[in-house]
Structures are given as C-alpha cells and as structure tokens.
Amino acid sequence: MTTLPHLSAEEAAAIIDHVNEDHPAELLLLARAFTPAPAPLAAAVTALYPDGLELQVTHAAGQDTYRVPFTTTDVPPKGRLRATVAAAREQLNEQPRTREVRWTVQAVTSPGADLRRLTLHADPDTLGSWRPGYAARFRTPAGERTYTLRRVHPQAALVEVDVYLHGDTPGSVWAAGLHPGDPVEAILGRHEILPDLHGGAALLLGDETALPTLAALLEHWPDAPGPRVLIEIADPGGAPYLDDVRLPPGTHLSWVPRAGPPGQALTRAAAALDTPVRAAWGALGSHAAREIRTLLRAAHGLDPARCRVVGYWQS
C-alpha cells in the first residue's frame, strides 16, 4: 500500500480502520459524489495515497473499486479526508444536521477517580431531541473534543458531561480549568452507532473514557436480558462511578484492573470469555479497540454490524 508522505504503514492502517469503522456515512457520501457507482449502498477505504484514496463501493450489482482524489493536499492526512468529505456534501447539497450552542458551567464535581463532571446550564430549546449517550463536540483552545452527554434534564435546562482526565492532554487541561460561570461552546449532531444489543448475549466493554456511554446504555436498557460488562480501570476509585446506575436484571459487571499498556488487560479479559457473544459495543484507546474488535469478530463469528468497538482516543 502506498502511503502518504511522513506517514508510516501502521499510521495509514490506523486511519483507514478509523474511517471505515466510525464514518461509514461519510464514505458513502464520497461514493455518491465522486464515483460512477450505480446507487451506492456502502463504501470502505482500502488504500491511502498522497493525492487521494482507494474506495471500495458496494452497490446493487456487486462491488467496484475507484480512485477518489483529495480536494486538497496542503493539510495533514485527516484534514485531506475531512476536506474531501466537505466537498462531497457541498456537491450533493447535503450538509450535516448540527446545531451550535453556548452553555454555561453551573457546577464542577468529581463522580469518580480522575473524572470531572461538568453540569452545564443550557437553553431548553436545544435539548428537545437529545438523550444521554449522545455526543457533542466542544470547542477548546486546542481544537474540538468530543464528549458524551451523561445526563440531560430538559425541564431543568441542565446537561451533565463527564470527562476523564488523561493527565495533561488538551481536553483534560480544558476540562480541569473550567469553573462555574465559564461559557462553553458545543456543536450538537452525533450519537453512537450501536448494534442490536437487546437480543441476548450482549457484551459491553471499555475503559474510563467509555464510562458515560456505558452508564447511559445500562440506564436505558429495555426489557431484555442484561449484558456482560467488562471495564478496565487504572484506579479502583473509578468503580463507584456506576453505583447510582440501576443495572438491568442479569447484568454481569466486572472491573478489570489495568496491567501493562492501556487496553491490554481488557483484551485478555475479552479473549477469556467462555460464553457466546451475539452483539458487542465498546470504546477505549484506538490500538486496543482494533485488537478487541478483531478478536471478538473472529471468536464469535460477528459481522461488523453486530460488533462495534471504537477508538475514543488515540493510543
């Protein structure tokens, strides 16, 4: 595979994995805007080049592969992809359904070890269709960062956002520096792509960054068997985070102590499962997410639609 300048094969593979797993809708836009494929149904990147990408497009008549040029080459690789997707949206006249909002920090608390809860006062009109587990992109001095809405209280016009503090990473520094009264700018318009988790034998897993999403999923679990849950944490003080979450009947929750690089212990725990898994969702560092996703799909015969394990942060 030819890669972009100053980009190793491993880095290129990570970008390809990320866009294929987390941005299927955007890749379908590229297929519709920039390939002659008849009525594209799905698309996946198979290679990256300095001036474009190779796109495998699935359509009613089968599959074909096309070369799609980047609309700009003056920015880093991810920027080239974003610019090309933006050009596809413009050509198709399909802009993302987002909404910019300005909230105010009302309170800052700590729901667990290295976790910071931001209680934000919001315009009730911006919260009508939003639910716990949805995500918003927050503007920080170092650029946009995406965080999950832990709770939404439309009547009280409040939103709770929990941020795991990764040392001195840009998002952690931003969240740690917020105080009551500070303004916060966010862009709404994204929710998790989930497999059907409610048919039994479901698995949820993740690290500290996944806790808000995991909590929202468990709190709003339907009348169905509870899932198997594996959560890797570095500090046992993170376990009380779920104390106020009413777990669905049948839920089996295990806290996995971190041992070695982030995600390694969780990968071992997932490999050691001795019960079948029919659907899985998880989130953690990107490298471990790829390993666990590959492991689960192979061990349990899961197709991508039934196994979503995504990278919440670059590892």
Structural class: alpha/beta
CATH topology of the largest domain: Rossmann fold
Q: How would you characterize the largest beta sheet?
A: 6 strands, antiparallel, barrel
Total strands: 14
Question: What's this model, at a glance?
Answer:
The chain has 315 residues and is an alpha/beta fold. It folds into three domains: 9-92, PNP-oxidase-like (Split barrel-like, Alpha-Beta Barrel), CATH 3.20.180.10; 99-191, Elongation Factor Tu (Ef-tu), domain 3 (Beta Barrel); 202-313, Rossmann fold (3-Layer(aba) Sandwich).
Structure explained in plain terms:
- With 315 residues, the protein is of the alpha/beta class.
- The chain folds into 3 domains: 9-92, PNP-oxidase-like (Split barrel-like, Alpha-Beta Barrel); 99-191, Elongation Factor Tu (Ef-tu), domain 3 (Beta Barrel); 202-313, 3-Layer(aba) Sandwich (Rossmann fold).
- Helix content is 25%, strand content 36%.
- It has helices at residues 9-22, 24-34, 77-92, 170-176, 211-219, 264-271, 286-300, and strands at residues 40-49, 52-59, 62-69, 99-112, 115-121, 134-140, 143-153, 158-164, 183-191, 202-206, 228-233, 252-257, 279-285, 307-313.
- The strands form 3 sheets. A 6-stranded antiparallel β-barrel has the order 4-5-8-7-6-9.
- Helix 6 (264-271) packs parallel to helix 7.
- The longest helix has 16 residues, at 77-92.
- The chain is globular, with a radius of gyration of 20 Å.
- The model has no long low-confidence stretch (mean pLDDT 90).
- Residues 98-243 form the FAD-binding FR-type domain.
- GO terms for molecular function: oxidoreductase activity.
- This is FAD-binding FR-type domain-containing protein.
- It comes from Deinococcus indicus.
